[in-house]
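Honest question from a wet-lab person: if I give you the sequences of every part of a complex, can you actually get the arrangement of the whole thing, not just the pieces? Trying it with mine:
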Amino acid sequence: MVQTEIRVIYGDTDQMGFVYYANYLRFFEAGRNEYLRAKGKPYREIEAELGIRLPVVEAGIRYQSPARYDDLLVVETSMVQIRRASARFEYVVRRGGDALVTGHTVHACIDFDGAICRLPESLLARLAE
Amino acid sequence: MVQTEIRVIYGDTDQMGFVYYANYLRFFEAGRNEYLRAKGKPYREIEAELGIRLPVVEAGIRYQSPARYDDLLVVETSMVQIRRASARFEYVVRRGGDALVTGHTVHACIDFDGAICRLPESLLARLAE
Amino acid sequence: MVQTEIRVIYGDTDQMGFVYYANYLRFFEAGRNEYLRAKGKPYREIEAELGIRLPVVEAGIRYQSPARYDDLLVVETSMVQIRRASARFEYVVRRGGDALVTGHTVHACIDFDGAICRLPESLLARLAE
Amino acid sequence: MVQTEIRVIYGDTDQMGFVYYANYLRFFEAGRNEYLRAKGKPYREIEAELGIRLPVVEAGIRYQSPARYDDLLVVETSMVQIRRASARFEYVVRRGGDALVTGHTVHACIDFDGAICRLPESLLARLAE
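Yes, you can. This is the full assembly:
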């Protein structure tokens, strides 16, 4: 599990005074990026060196409690399941001890022509460490 | 079912050349707004006149095929289930005949103090028409 | 001058209850897209057929009065100045008769290698009509 | 001058492969927030304790060079001018030694009824330190 800090800005909030519901998918992406970086393989390198992309094919979010302007959030990201051609990430967004939002994303593995392909062994080995 | 047109702008896309995955939740909201307006009860009036809010407590999205810059999308919105204190919306984002993305949101009904409350009868009657 | 309608969604607002200041640049882009489409040359075709891009090199915005959730705004877009390798657009965002926000953008003309180039004659002719 | 780090995510980019032009205003806001925090008066407290707001009345941006996905940017924020009822911030967005984008914002000082008011002496003293 990798932790990523997010400071909520005005631009993340809506007129209800809470973080707008779509923005948690941005926070999830930030968490995912830092997860891969912590594993030694930033997503930028996955694209550039391995010639693959990992587009999202499914996302789910549960909103338990709202985040607010200037909150210092922590996104806890883990990778919980890896199939041959897909990967699943799970996320918990916390403020202090409280879990505000949980969610997951499922990613396909495609090459630059858009064809589904296997996750490279070198990447799997990295992520399994 | 209510249809809402969305024209994709550059700002909706990401460097993969597709609409960024979080932005579909914005499109869903646009669809939801127009659904309620078509039923004669815009969300602005629901807040102002009925004194309730309908925050999202759950969202799910399946990404089948990517939308691109300048696509003219149609969000088809329907309300499929109404419980005493919650409502569920379903969405299909189409380009021409193709369903690109599907999803749903579940909304709680809360008053302005944040307490869960029943959906007002007057609203239920409207939506059931 | 070309008019483009924008319906403000919750996701456009911030906790002050107004449209977040960055989002007007999205509205300007929507206006710009529709301006070029109305002139018979959508930006997508400018990129695809003429092999050029028009990145923004300067933007300015004056915020006179706030837009709010569910407002039906109109972006009035005009092109006021064309140099050999740059173009300037001006925008007025209105709600009813009121001008809420005004602004401008200046765009360079670059080819796909990133080199500055002249605006194609065929495009200039179109825009001058 | 206060420095704020920004890690560019996919959601910040557009299909040109660069950070979308509106998102720099989000980065400016993050820089402004950290500037005020570093001065000992986070904007959240300015609203909550001083009863004032500082909405943006003018913004200007110059785009010299594009930022890209996964760049680690630094926003350098300074406050360069303070009038009785307005404040001006200036921003430089850097990647390493390169200044990619520069800009400014001008803010009015209003109370919670929306009336223009003087910047509180206590705040001016803080910011002048």
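Two things worth pointing out. The interface with chain A takes residues 16, 18, 21-23, 25-26, 29, 53, 55-64, 66, 105 of chain B (CB under 8 Å). DSSP finds three helices and seven strands in chain B.
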